[in-house]
Design brief:
344 residues; mainly alpha; 3 domains; elongated
Length: 344
């Protein structure tokens, strides 16, 4: 354990020289998980108050005082652990990017459905009604309608919570902190199953913008059993090499997934929209106009007026005998008319 503390203090010393606040904060968080003596606690207190002018000097003194307890480590193993740590950092970046892209797309799709879903559903239904019964086109139109209806219901059910910009920033920060503590691709085999459960729940909560749930998971991770990462706890060269190879493959998969999300139709549309409110209003107007056109087309396809239908139905009910009598009466009327014309 002293060797681990010394290494992290050394990283902090170098990070101070590079003015890398993020790296300093990361190493401080790692140190706070370890049993520390009073001198290290003093160093952390100085870091928390930004009194860095004393930090490097105290770290050097602490290293000098504790140099006798340092354990020799194979330089190749040190290099492998550093390589693995850098890969883990890249994994964290890609995981954050993928999760944020998925969250943005889900948020946009949900708003799209909430604003326009009912109207689109009505249009698809009218299109199916316009086509002749049992035609291939009608069957396809009905299938489009049913597929959209199912997707519409699922998207409404899957709708994320609405957050202010401030709460969204809090959500992102909490998610990133929690994902670094439980990402299964970084954990040792003993903790991988437990980490997978945490990470799955965390990702689901983040996609739905469920801030209370994300904070709950983070609190559990910070106060419960620490999930051991490979780069911090493994010193076997073969295992480290195996983990590095596996992590490189996983990173390649994540890079491809991120590229696919960025090239998706939904994300490209999100990037193109400058005024989301104006976009939805314009689209709503266009869809309403299309719906009215479909309604008018259906009106034109309705049967003849009621009077014509009544007349036709009555004619069909006239018997042959009545029809012949009616024709005879017409002939008599014509004879009478010709008579009066001759007379006058």
């Amino acid at each position: 354990m002293p060797n681990t503390i010394l290494k992290r203090l050394d990283i902090i010393k170098n990070a101070v020289a590079m003015e890398d606040d993020e790296l300093i904060a990361m190493q401080v968080a790692k140190l706070e998980e370890l049993p520390l003596d009073a001198k290290v606690m003093q160093i952390l207190a100085l870091i928390s108050t930004k009194r860095f002018q004393y930090v490097i000097q105290l770290i050097e003194q602490y290293k000098h005082d504790n140099s006798g307890v340092m354990v020799f480590q194979d330089p190749q193993i040190q290099g492998l652990k550093l390589e693995l740590k850098l890969l883990e950092n890249r994994l964290n970046e890609l995981t954050d990017t993928q999760a944020d892209l998925e969250r943005q797309i889900n948020e946009f799709n949900s708003e799209y459905m909430q604003r326009l879903g009912s109207l689109i559903e009505a249009i698809l239904k009218k299109r199916a009604e316009l086509l002749s019964d049992d035609s291939v086109e009608q069957q396809e139109a009905k299938q489009d309608y049913e597929n959209f209806e199912q997707s519409f219901k699922q998207q409404i059910k899957d709708a994320p919570q609405t957050l202010t910009p401030e709460l969204q920033q809090q959500l992102k920060a909490a998610y990133r902190k929690a994902s670094r503590l439980c990402h299964p691709d970084k954990l040792t085999d003993d903790f991988k199953a437990q980490g997978t459960e945490f990470f799955k729940a965390l990702s689901e909560a983040y996609r739905h913008q469920d801030l209370p749930r994300v904070l709950e998971i983070l609190h559990t991770l910070e106060t419960g059993t620490t999930l051991s990462t490979v780069s911090d706890s493994i010193n076997d060269k073969a295992i480290l090499q195996s983990k590095i190879a596996a992590l490189r493959l996983r990173i390649a998969e994540l890079e491809a997934a991120v590229i696919a999300l960025q090239a998706s139709e939904s994300y490209e549309l999100i990037q193109e929209i400058d005024d989301k409110e104006a976009y939805f209003e314009q689209l709503k107007t266009q869809l309403e106009a299309e719906y009215e056109c479909l309604v008018q087309e259906l009106e034109q396809l309705k049967p003849k007026a009621a009077d014509d239908v009544f007349y036709e139905s009555r004619v069909s009910e006239v018997s042959q005998q009545d029809w012949e009598a009616y024709q005879a009466m017409l002939r008599e009327d014509e004879e009478d008319e010709s008579y009066w014309q001759d007379e006058f």
